[in-house]
């Protein structure tokens, strides 16, 4: 008998674990058994899969778990609500795996002197074909004490599948140490507190002391590098029998390609306000925030709104959905509004939506399901269709099986149909959109703003790529200190760009306030803001340099670059990108400046590094004769300019709280002659853009930075807390309508008193 173990929360059960359990029920045969630990909810509320191969256990019954969680309740990735969430220091979330796995291992060892294999399997994994004990035997060497998947070029091993041979003592000792790390609190003394980091550390220590192991992916050279590469799970024998919905794929049904963001939904509110529907239908994938948001917008112009949801209620909890809508109903009543709703389990029934005036059709797993839903709803005047895919800028697009909405729309004849502009990227390539279908000639046209395509600037390197690579090679020989990933800190990074909007008194107050709270604020600037800061008595902690052009050339601000460093502080560290013109590096070193190097990520640099290290392995090149960048060097992303890379650098060093000053990206209106000037490619040198009908003059270079800011401000997944300082600028307008600006503090969310 091979014993497997997994664990999941209520959200995990609804999102992906149920699918795993159903696949166990359907495909697992003799000699395989799964212990499924659930925590912080009552599984009896669900019609859960039942099988002789599955035993369900309540993880909350483990006393040590409760003791640990109570003692570490502030170590939840937010330091008890004091910082933006960071999963790498969320000891609470990731402790459940540790306590479930160790508890079962100890029980097995107590019951038998030969307990056999215990295999951890993540709950976002599901089986795709018939399997039994013999399926795993060829891969579980009876002499091995551990079977796992290491990952070269990655910080820790792939821990979605780990097999411990409990017939030997070392695996039990390892698991005992793992439990001890958590119970003693030692886990919080390390750089990262999640199970993957801690387990990988222990495995390395035990291997160094003789632990016998089998690495299922050790034969591969580039598993899950920090930028690209196949998943370890997918590169093992497991790929033939299971699918692992890791990361972005975890919450998508049947591996349907998943958008990396949901910015396309921002247009939905404007559409609701424009058409004022009062009888709303949703079908397919369901999101509570989107549903409530839709109804809330509808109430802007209506006093009565009816909502109907068709859903199988397999992946969402019927009871909790009803509780949510009941709560919304009572909240509307307090405002003298009337909200009614219907929750219907199963497929669409046309007779229940005859009077609907708006429908949202989510994702479906098959073309047949989508077509069936669309045909039953196409009489509704206003239809929104989600997950309509198009090619991205590189020509990538999801597989044909996911193109059902586009194909149906192409053939459907109606008054008007639109695919709204979207920058939502897809896992595996492509763009994700929502489409709008107008079925009634009485409906107004879509507003022009909704159909507008934003101006897109694709910045090009200001010097040839060969010159940039030459700069990298020279700087690798000039510099001996390089930025690498750092531990987390609660201190704030105060980024000061060169825009004239910086309020120096406000900057001073921010520094004082951070210091008063017990933090050490770090001023980080770009080369153009460096002399401005020094003149006003500020001592920058670091100055970021990212410019492959000559030190004696004139910058885009009309200043000779060398003069920016006429005055220098001994306290300032200069973070010089490897692509920087070497004359700049030599100049700073000659001035006895404290210079650190860093690598600005670009596809060209990444490909050069990978290509050279492949040649080094083949004996065709040496590190000294190539660029000289070590394999696995940290490459820092962030944007097209030094100010945006400053954010990337400080995030890499461990900072998660940021204050932004001088991020303007606009200029005074150019004169008539200047407005006629052209770039080399024929595009206007100066251009006017609008944010919510407010015009700004800018340049291509400044607009590229503004777009980088907009993308950063709209990211839901980034683990940082941003505070923007500045008014009446292009970037300020983008900030004022952004996701980050609208986020509330944890106290506001919980309605605690300040």
Give an account of the 3D structure:
- By secondary structure, this protein is of the alpha/beta class.
- The protein folds into three domains: 2-249, Spore Coat Polysaccharide Biosynthesis Protein SpsA, Chain A, CATH 3.90.550.10; 263-451, Rossmann fold; 465-748, no CATH class.
- The protein contains 23 helices and 27 strands.
- The strands form five sheets. Strands 10, 11, 12, 13, 14, 15, 16 and 17 form an eight-stranded mixed β-sheet that branches.
- Strand 11, helix 9 (318-333) and strand 12 (338-345) form a beta-alpha-beta unit.
Describe the structure in brief:
By secondary structure, the chain is an alpha/beta fold. The protein has 23 helices and 27 strands.
What is the first-to-last residue Cα distance?
57 Å
Question: What is the typical, i.e. mean, pLDDT?
Answer: 84
Radius of gyration equals 29 Å
- Count of runs of 4 or more consecutive helical residues: 23
């Amino acid at each position: 008998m091979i014993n497997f173990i997994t664990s999941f929360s209520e959200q995990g059960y609804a999102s992906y674990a149920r699918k795993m359990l159903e696949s166990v029920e359907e495909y697992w045969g003799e000699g395989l058994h799964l212990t499924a630990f659930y925590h912080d909810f009552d599984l009896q509320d669900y019609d859960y899969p039942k099988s002789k191969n599955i035993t369900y256990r309540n993880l909350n019954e483990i006393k040590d778990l409760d003791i640990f969680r109570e003692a570490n309740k502030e170590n939840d990735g937010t330091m008890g609500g004091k910082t933006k969430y960071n999963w790498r220091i969320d000891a609470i979330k990731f402790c459940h795996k540790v306590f479930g796995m160790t508890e079962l291992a100890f029980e097995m060892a107590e019951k038998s002197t030969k307990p056999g294999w215990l295999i951890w399997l993540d709950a976002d994994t599901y089986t795709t074909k018939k399997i039994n004990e013999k399926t795993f035997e060829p891969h579980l060497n009876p002499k091995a004490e551990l079977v796992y998947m290491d990952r070269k070029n990655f910080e820790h091993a792939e821990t979605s599948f780990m097999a411990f041979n409990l017939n030997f003592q070392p695996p039990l000792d390892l698991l005992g140490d793992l439990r001890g790390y958590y119970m003693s609190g030692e886990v919080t003394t390390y750089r990262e507190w999640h199970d993957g980091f801690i387990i990988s550390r222990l495995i390395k220590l035990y291997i160094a002391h003789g632990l016998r192991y089998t690495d299922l992916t050790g034969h591969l050279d580039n598993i899950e590098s920090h930028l690209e590469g196949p998943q370890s799970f997918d590169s093992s024998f497991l790929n033939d029998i299971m699918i692992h919905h890791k990361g972005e794929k975890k919450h998508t049904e049947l591996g349907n390609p998943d958008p990396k963001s949901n910015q396309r939904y921002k247009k939905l509110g404007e559409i609701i306000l424009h058409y004022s529907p009062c009888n709303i239908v949703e079908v397919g994938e369901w999101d509570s925030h989107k549903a409530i948001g839709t109804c809330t917008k509808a109430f802007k112009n209506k006093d009565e709104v009816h909502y109907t949801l068709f859903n199988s209620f397999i992946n969402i909890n019927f009871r909790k959905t009803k509780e949510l809508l009941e709560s919304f109903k009572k909240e509307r009543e307090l405002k003298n509004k009337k909200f009614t709703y219907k929750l219907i389990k199963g497929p669409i029934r046309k007779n229940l939506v005859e009077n609907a005036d708006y429908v949202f059709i989510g994702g479906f797993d098959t073309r047949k399901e989508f077509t069936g839903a669309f045909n039953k709803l196409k009489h509704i005047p206003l239809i929104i269709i989600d997950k309509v895919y198009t090619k991205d800028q590189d020509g990538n697009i999801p597989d044909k099986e996911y193109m059902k909405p586009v194909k149906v729309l192409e053939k459907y004849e109606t008054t008007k149909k639109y695919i709204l502009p979207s920058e939502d990227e897809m896992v595996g390539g492509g763009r994700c959109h929502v489409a709008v279908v107008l079925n009634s000639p009485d409906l107004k046209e879509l507003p022009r703003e909704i159909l507008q395509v934003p101006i897109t600037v694709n910045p090009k390197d200001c010097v040839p790529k060969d010159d940039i690579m030459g700069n990298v090679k020279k700087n690798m020989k000039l510099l001996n200190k390089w930025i690498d990933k750092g531990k987390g800190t609660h201190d704030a990074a105060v980024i000061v760009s060169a825009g004239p909007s910086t309020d120096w008194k406000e900057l001073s107050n921010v520094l004082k306030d951070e210091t008063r709270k017990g933090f050490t604020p770090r001023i980080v600037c770009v080369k153009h803001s460096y002399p401005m800061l020094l003149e006003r008595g500020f001592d920058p902690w670091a100055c970021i340099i990212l410019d492959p052009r000559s030190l004696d050339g004139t910058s885009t601000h009309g200043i000779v670059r060398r003069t920016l460093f006429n005055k220098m502080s001994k306290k300032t560290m200069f973070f010089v990108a490897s692509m920087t013109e070497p004359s700049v590096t030599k100049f700073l070193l000659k001035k006895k400046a404290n210079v650190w190097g860093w690598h600005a990520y670009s596809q060209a640099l990444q490909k050069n590094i990978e290509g050279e290290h492949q040649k080094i392995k083949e004996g065709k090149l040496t590190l000294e004769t190539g660029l000289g960048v070590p394999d696995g060097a940290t490459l820092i992303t962030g944007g097209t300019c030094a100010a945006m890379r400053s954010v990337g650098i400080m995030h890499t060093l461990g900072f998660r709280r940021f204050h932004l000053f001088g991020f303007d990206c606009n200029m005074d209106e150019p004169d008539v002659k200047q407005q006629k000037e052209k770039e080399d490619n024929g595009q206007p040198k100066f251009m006017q853009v609008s944010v919510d009908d407010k015009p700004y003059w800018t340049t291509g270079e400044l607009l590229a930075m503004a777009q980088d800011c907009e993308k950063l401000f709209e990211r839901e997944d980034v683990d940082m807390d941003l505070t923007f300082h500045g008014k009446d600028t292009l970037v300020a307008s983008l900030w004022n309508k952004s996701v980050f600006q609208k986020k509330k503090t944890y106290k506001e969310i919980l309605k605690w008193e300040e």
